[in-house]
Amino acid sequence: MPEATALSFKAVASGLQGALKPPGDKSISHRAAIFSLLADGVSEIEGFLQAEDTLATLAACEQLGAGVVRDNNKLKISGVGLNGLLRPANGLLDMGNSGTAMRLFAGVLSAQSFAATLSGDASLNTRPMSRVVKPLQQMGAKIQSNNGSPPLQISPSPGLQAIEYQSPVASAQVKSCLLLAAICAGVTASLTEPLLSRDHSERMLRDQGAKLKSQGSTVKLLPTTSLQPLNMQVPADISSAAFAVVASLIVPGSNITIANVSNNPTRARLLDILRQMGAEIEITAISEQAGEPVADLRVRSSKLHGVDVPIDWVPGMIDEFPILMVAAAVASGVTRVRGAAELRVKESDRIAVMSKGLRQLGVRVDEYADGFDVYGDADFAFRGGEVDGHGDHRCAMSLLVCGLRSKQRVCVLGTEMIATSYPDFIADMRALGADLDE
Ligand code: S3P
């Protein structure tokens, strides 16, 4: 367990300024490592996220036989092909805090001829895994869980069958898990989700030569016998950039730029909703990088007003609700979110953790089973206090941002978890002019 830390930012008098360089995208980095492991040949990945979650994935890939050479900002990963995975030493893979790693590897390992166990930290070991265990069992996988949570003990099965699956949740982790199981087993898969979740797996697999048909929120994988290696630059993570974006909007006098950030429409809905709230965000230099849309952003402090987030936008900004709640607190009127029950089963119950933290800082928040109403005020400054990220990196970073717009000290407990996704968060915020209140 990392040592517990508490931090607070000082209010920024002159605004945040400069160019933010956020780290590589977390979702894309996990996939780049796993899909390289499964490829025939050497993949070259630039800008891989060096954070606890994705390093756990990379370590697991090495344990399963991938050769990994680190060359400055570039990773060279020698794949073992779809049929060449090795049994990890003592059969155990540690996924740390990462739900993505756990669910994607569950798909890969279900199709192997060796037994393996997937486990995680205290938080991950309480998270729901039935959403992947059930459809994998439907394919013929042999998996035992701890009442639907990790550890997952996966035994070899005689061979997985093709699947047609109607997922009850919009989840890229479920989708990617089943695509990986089908690819490793050499069978077809068709999955429909209630709303389209992030499509990084589909884009990357197509880049590797797999045949997929997407229509609306249905994806069909045709039989795939091999994957070509990847050669890609990982875009900057919009989910990490989101904290500086909102910080700049709510700290008067701010003006920042962010280059080459993921602008994938299944991921970047936060930008749309903030612009609806009145945010001055310019999106320029829109292009594609290794099949992924990217863009440059300029963000200036703005007067915000509350909005209703359309339910069908929820999956496209599922990781950004903690920081949206911070923006909503300084937006005049009410910001309403519904259809976001998934927030209750993330690294923490994000509705509960953020509602509690924001109330302690003087914000009125009404909680619902599947969302919240935040009552904002454009002239609001957060009250000081001690708040807790409850083991959740994104809640910790969101609550820290509140300190930039407070006359008192906003001390956030549990900031050690920030290292799971964004180890340089404090350094990057300092480079924009924020400073810690030590
Ligand atoms: C992720 C998908 C999302 C997201 C998570 C990363 C991924 O989860 O919350 O942080 O990389 O596939 P769900 O797909 O379960 O919504």
What CATH first level of the largest domain would be assigned?
Alpha Beta
Percent of residues in beta strands?
25-35%
CATH architecture label of the largest domain: Alpha-beta prism
Domain module count: 2
Q: How many β-strands, per DSSP?
A: 23
- Cofactors and ligands present? shikimate-3-phosphate
CATH superfamily of the largest domain: Enolpyruvate transferase domain
Determine Rg (CA atoms, Å).
Answer: 21 Å
Task: Give the strand line-up of the largest sheet.
Answer: 2-15-17-16
Shape: globular
- How much helical structure, as a percent, in the residues? 25-40%
Our count of helices gives 12
Mean pLDDT: 97
Low-confidence stretches: none
CATH topology of the largest domain: UDP-n-acetylglucosamine1-carboxyvinyl-transferase, Chain
Distance between the termini: 24 Å
What class, by secondary structure content? alpha/beta
| Major sheet details | 4 strands, mixed
